[in-house]
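Lecture notes, unit on protein representations.

Consider one protein chain, 71 amino acids long.
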Amino acid sequence: MDFCLGVLGQFLIYRIMLKVKDPARQLYLAVPREIYNTFFQSQLAQVAIEQHDLKIIVYNPTSEEIVQWIS
């Protein structure tokens, strides 16, 4: 869980920096399906998704396919 929180924090900082350089660009967080089905279903992650209006791409790392777009 600590790893996921660190990744989420880095993503949010990167998004802030990107808004300064290129405010029109949409940034998505790419998340493996297993992580989305575990960590991103937690209450903490759901609150972060809602409050920070996260846009997420869920992918299957084995088949390298996008499973779901969440925006």
